[in-house]
What does this fold into?
Amino acid sequence: MTKQIERVGIPVVHACSIVPISKTVGANRIVPTIAIPHPFGDPAKSPEEEKAMRKELVNKALKALATPINQQTVF
It folds into this structure.
């Protein structure tokens, strides 16, 4: 899906827990996340820690969107 969206000129970030799968499907901007059942969080952490972790991942994804790339890139 990410390749199809990028073909029309919209940059996409694929946030995923398993980077090799993202590479295999052809995602160009890849942001590794925490875990399969909780990609943007960790229920074992306090709400404050989890919020900070989510904020960091979203900021990383936004930075990836703004970064020009020529090949698959893991941020």
Summary: The chain is about 45% helix and 15% strand.
